[in-house]
What does this fold into?
Amino acid sequence: MREICSVILAAGSSRRLGFNKLTVKIDSEAVIRRSVAAFIAAALGDIVVVAGPHVSEIAGELDGLALTVVHNEDHRSGMSSSIKAALPWIRRAEAVFFHLGDKPFIREGLLEDMVKAYRTTGKHIIIPVCNGEKGHPVLMSVAPYMEAMKGLKGDKGLREVIEKHKEDVLFIEADDGVLFDIDTADDIRNLTQKGYHVEKSTR
It folds into this structure.
């Protein structure tokens, strides 16, 4: 059985926040390190982190973990460029998780549930939802959508592929960790109000 690999998209410039959100520490652990933790714990297959302008800082935060950091030099072209940058690492896999590096509260159990749904239902795309809103990660077969992913452009990411293959999609219920991300100062204040200790990285 071929592996299920994982791609963590982490090539944003954090313009809205004004500093690198992926190296922000939540209870002394960087956002990006928290975001990959469930995938490492699940031990499904290779993990690729696609980074952009902050590649050295992100690689530093992930030091010692069993994964590959890929530099997307074309990151200004949008999220699609990061997906395409990962394709050489996933082309032989059976399926791939695509996750966003600024979503640090994904549970290992969710990944296991998604893999089980993928294996047992015959659906090629598994998407978690919370309160009717679609979240991340997305799990999808590789081979049926490889050519479509090669042709992606701009910042739409996988939405275009998913929209064209609605019949292949299965939604599963999940907690709000699939929705929460860090984009603004309000998001950081929200974490603080929930009792987390949040601080900027010294890197």
Notes: The chain has one domain: 4-199.
